[in-house]
Design goal:
- The radius of gyration is 21 Å and the shape is globular.
- Strands 7, 8, 9, 11, 14, 15, 16 and 17 form an 8-stranded mixed β-sheet that branches. It has a 5-stranded mixed β-sheet with strand order 1-2-3-4-5, covered by helices on one side.
- It is built from 7 helices and 17 strands.
- The chain folds into 2 domains: 19-109, no CATH class; 113-168 and 209-291, no CATH class.
- The protein is α+β, with helices and mostly antiparallel strands.
């Protein structure tokens, strides 16, 4: 007996590329991001708003593609200059993977880059280092909204003469941050973010640093202590190096010995402090006082 014919439903192809973000200025790289998802494009244009434009001196051009696939199941892939970087991404990880790819461009240009945020006070850089989720980004965002200028977050690239280069990438903020902005109620944010957020400093009313590399005046490590604890406590160079260096990618790279040496020289050359950020306003005033601002 011949079985009845079964109608085979055609599988819809992946949506075509239809949207572009950029150019974006990432160090000396001019970056373009293409995608086949209009909601992602609109969201990333907002998130990367502070990077919009081309570098003054373009050293290289980088082309990224973020593809939403529906075949054989829903997933995403990220490509850089035709090379697959991540081929099986879930939706909430797409913005962070794109941000990570931009961070890599900075690491490639400047191997001595700290896992730290940086703000500028009166021509001096305060570098805020430490492990993930220690409050670096929240403190940098608060300072940038209260008289400082935002220089960088997560990736603070250090020049040979100990200056920090501007890299105004979006801040990486926890969903429980006291700076949680109202605009994350947008459905696009619920679609593409699970836990943490990417927020441009300009959306928080912060000031951006657009000048040359800023000389480092101080290294600080944030810690949420008790309100009665000292706001600022001096940190020994060895302790500072451990707290800042443990999450720096350069210490796990091929040139780790050189990175270690430069970090050791840096912590010996500038004041280092542990800052209690239980009260952000008080912590900000204490930093200003130490800087004489």
């Amino acid at each position: 007996m011949v079985p009845p014919a079964v109608a085979v439903q055609p599988v819809a192809p992946d949506p075509p590329i239809c949207e572009r973000i950029g150019p974006l200025a990432v160090g000396q790289s001019e970056v373009i991001i293409d995608t086949n998802d209009a909601e992602l494009a609109a969201l990333m244009a907002e998130i990367f708003a502070d990077l919009e434009g081309s570098p003054a001196h373009v050293r290289r051009r980088q082309h990224f593609v973020a593809l939403r696939h529906v075949v054989p199941w829903a997933h995403w892939s990220i490509w850089r200059n035709g090379e697959g970087r991540e081929l099986m991404l879930e939706e909430p990880y797409v913005p962070f993977q794109l941000q990570w790819e931009l961070n890599q461009l900075i690491f490639e240009e400047h191997p001595f880059a700290l896992h730290a945020a940086t703000v500028e006070f009166g021509g001096s850089a305060v570098v805020i280092g430490g492990v993930s989720n220690s409050g670096k980004s929240t403190f940098a965002a608060w300072l940038s909204s209260h008289g400082a200028s935002y220089v960088a977050d997560e990736v603070s690239a250090v020049t040979p003469d100990n200056r920090i280069l501007s890299y105004p990438r979006p801040l990486g903020l926890s969903t429980v941050t006291p700076l949680r902005p109202q605009f994350i109620k947008d459905p696009r944010h619920r679609r593409f973010f699970a836990d943490d957020l990417l927020v441009p400093v300009s959306a928080l009313g912060g000031s951006l640093w657009h000048g040359p590399a800023v000389p480092i005046a101080m290294l600080v490590v944030p810690s949420v202590g008790e309100p009665e604890d000292p706001v600022l406590s001096p940190l020994a160079p060895a302790e500072t190096m451990m707290r800042i260096g443990q999450s720096c990618p350069g210490l796990h790279a091929d040139a780790a010995a050189e990175f270690f040496g430069r970090l050791a020289d840096l912590v010996e050359s500038v004041p280092c402090w542990l800052v209690n950020t239980a009260d952000l306003a008080e912590a900000g005033r204490a930093l200003r006082s130490q800087l004489g601002r």
